[in-house]
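Listing 4. Sequential folding, example run.
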Amino acid sequence: MGKTEESIEAYKAKRDKIKQMGDPKAIEKRHEAGQWSARERIDHFFDPGTFTEIGLFVKHRATHFGMDKREIPAEGVITGYGKVNGRPAVAVAEDYTAMAGTFGEYHGKKFARALDFAKDMGWPCISMNDSGGARLQEGMDTLESYGWLFRTQILASGIVPQISLLMGPCLGGQAYHPVMQDFLIQCRHTGFMGIAGPAFVKTQVGEEITLEELSGWKAHAVKSGQTHIVAENDKDALDMCKQLLSFLPSNNKEKPPRVETKDDPERTVPDLDIVIPDRSTQPFDMLRVITPVVDDGHFFELMKDYARNCMIGFARFNGRPAGIVANQSMQAAGVIDIDAADKMARFIRFCDLFNIPLVSFADCPGYMIGSEQDWRGILRHGAKLLYAWADATVPLISIMVRKAYAGAHYGMLDKSIGADLVFAWPTAQVTIVGAETAASVIFAKEIREAENKQEARAKRVEEYRELHENPYRAAERGYIDDIIMPSDTRKIINRALDTLENKTVTRPWRKYSNINL
């Protein structure tokens, strides 16, 4: 055998050894727990035969604490690029079977390099998080590598979509990485994320709590609002990620991908004409409005378990992706509180960054009032919505379904805050406050002095309602572009999106707005 053949055989042996990640028994144990190996995740995610690995031979350099004798295949993280449903993407998959996927100097460098590559190419970057945490044996080199990754992903933010799949543990400083990405998909039974694990929490603050309670899916999908989608297992997480990517452009210079559809853009929905309850305080499910007007009834909802008084997600209109923001009166009457404001504002800003039109469905009695919300900063958090709408340059379409009161009028997108087109149903109640509240203030003395207070109050309430609590006065002033039949909502939205297809906005130069954070 010649030298060339020997070198090729040596290369193959070295490559194959690295790719054979982990103890077979460890992988079998993972399978029993419903988890795949890092390479199995990569294989399922990318179109067959399209993945090209980069950084396979990267190796740590630390020599302390026995690290010079350690073999960590591919530095515990697979990086590379390929095609997902025919479109290019970059992926990073941590391998828990390689020194528990611990995050060391060169692990971090590979991670950051992949994200830089994605930014330079204009491709989405997907990370599959599954790590035992910081590689303490490397000391300061490990600490510094976190900073490289954080800065890299922040500088890539708004340039390419970033999606994190929480498929295993992600604790300590490393947990900042997934929450700073655009979307986070968490595996229900195996994904854990937190600034510290239960043992450290007990040592430092004396609190006894399980990993599931502290860092599981309920902690983040329900309570903290940091998880966008809860997946049942690895396969479900990867499939959800592929579906999410189908709505997104590859980068901020492209429009979102339009697909063919057989769903008639001019289709009417007669059932919408009777969907609103007769009693204005009676809740109804906003999904009954959204689902029938979008293509094929498919609404890809995000953060459905958090701030359930509002709804966000993606859908298509005549094959065109759009972001949807809506109130949900089934929960707290659809009022905007701190959590709802945060949830909607960040989604609006993401859509604006990536050229995705936005459609708002409003049925909101206002911002939440009271000392608890005031002291926690409802004004500051509520202002995020105003910044998000006013900063946005994508097509903005507002559908006023029912209530559009007070601050919620512009918090849910009206003409004054930046809507391009505003449409209202005949059932819309568009005014500064409800008729009952207004009448009790304006005519307080008259009602108090009336012989029949109830009759006097009812008369003034009806008078105010007829004059102000309807969409016609706003339409007279041009604040509403048209009052439409609910059944025509789908075709009106499609026509509006066609009209706004090439919308352009020119503004004075600035770095960015000083949003209330």
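-- end of first protein; second protein begins --
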Amino acid sequence: MAHNNENKIPSRKKANIEDWTSCKSTAQMLRKARVDQVETAFERAADMKACPIGAKSACCKHCAMGPCRLNSKDPYAKTGVCGATIDTIQSRNFARMVATGTAAHSSHGRNMLNLLKGVVDGKIKGYAIKDTTKLNEVAQSLGIETEDREVHAIARDLCSELEKVFHMTEGEIPFVRKVPKKTLEVWRKLDIVPRGAMVEVVELLQRTHAGMDQDYQNLTKQINRTALVDGWGGSMVATEISDILFGTPSPVQGEVDMGCLKEDQVNIIVHGHEPYLLESMVEAVNDPNLIEAAKEVGAAGINLLGMCCSGLEMLSRHGIPHAGNFMSTEAVLVTGAVDAFGVDVQCIQQGLVKVGKCYGTKIFTTNPSCRIEGAEHIEFDEHNPRTCTDSIVKQAIDRFKNRNLEIEIPPNKSVGVHGFSHEYINYMLGGSFRASYAPLNDNIINGRIRGVAGVVGCVNPRVKQDWVHIELVKELIKNDILVLQTGCSQVALAKAGLCTPEAAYYAGPGLREVCETVGMPPVLGLGACVDNTRILIACAEMVKVGGLGDSIADLPVAGAAPEWYSEKAIAIGQYFVASGVYTVFGVTFPIVDETKFHTLLFKEMEKQGLGKWGLQRIPMKWRD
């Protein structure tokens, strides 16, 4: 039973749990939570009616003359007190979502850059450059000399160049060198090539202030600049440096789902987005002294699992088991088997603390940017990382020793193949001597593969967890479309068994033939949300190889985030659209249909040589 009345479910009609999730483990734990009278995000979503005006961005609260609410059924019937039209209000609201999402990813990228700088300068001893090949490749792509040079000298020059991604006030960010020529020409013509992230985010935010930019088309130019500095800037920095420091992923077999918990071991879960916390935790749980301490209290060992995006990076690099995606983070605590739950940044639900208290599991925050009331904070210091991670392990061992609740671990566990970086896909298609995307392009040209879809992103309690991801991807591969995955979507597909070579059985005849020939799954897991940049690089490489068009907008590629929830997802979607990719979201979209701003994003941007947005909630209709 629940230990904390504060978290008890209010008395109300309860929905069918099977309507909330297609994840068997999560459903089992939600049923247990009901018996235990413990509230989760699913219960809160069922009891919280979404504001229809807010959902469509038909309101403005940017000054004290409001808040002003416009009627989404007749959006041009009135304006805000200042005279702002529905298009001004919507574009400002959308801009702030893009700015916040870009800031989140840019902060992640800057943190990774600072870590690399510390390693290069000798100030950080707990990490080292693991992939010198990737270091050289990234440096060369940015015009940095690498021949006959010492590794740290190359890395130091790379750090200096990548600083521009965040702080440059004039010119173009370094990674535009990777953008196809025609795509870059379109950006320059439209004046949307980004400068540094800090400049673009600040510029976008100040334009949304009351009395500032009131032309939705002009504001959209800055929205595009800001989104592009996310995809081709901060996020790309995070991915490239993670590969340099921790190793570029290549296929590894890994287990996913709550069945990865072990009742006879100390179970530690790390959840968040910055991989260096988990990298240090890997060292800590393998420390002989800590393993012996666990055995002294009766544990068979220490079992480390990841959740969400940092968990996906560890799954891709080390095969560390993954317990589930965003909407399973509370549910996994209901097992009673989690002895410590450590988090860093992004997608951390405040409700974790209350659920954890009900089952005697401490939630540990580790990053100064993300503290939670009621959680125990142990600051992670990259100069001495083991201080934090060892402390979490020791407290987990203490909790194991004092377990006094019944443990219930769902038996579900799926094994799949993960870790398909851009570099490995290149090698997989052509081998060491002929590494190239040419076989992919050729098979698209000859019709075996109809195209490539990036199905990525979050899960959202406003729709049935995982279901749209799974059904959409099944439909895509059945129609000979190769699917690339990142983020919570990848976990959903892994749980469904679609990340194995055997899943090619569900693919159409053309894609199945290619998968069987290469020995790959029809669904390729690329890692965390920031690793959507691997998809951008893959698109650029497809253009470079030739035969499918001269720009990203010419390619038979599309993107989808069927269950998105966060501002980061909007920023990601916008940088794909601005890069030339047709991008479809599910659940909802924060714009009133058929307004001028809606028409710009959903139709007119494509006419400018970019991509366009789409919205579809039902997976079978995505064919249309």
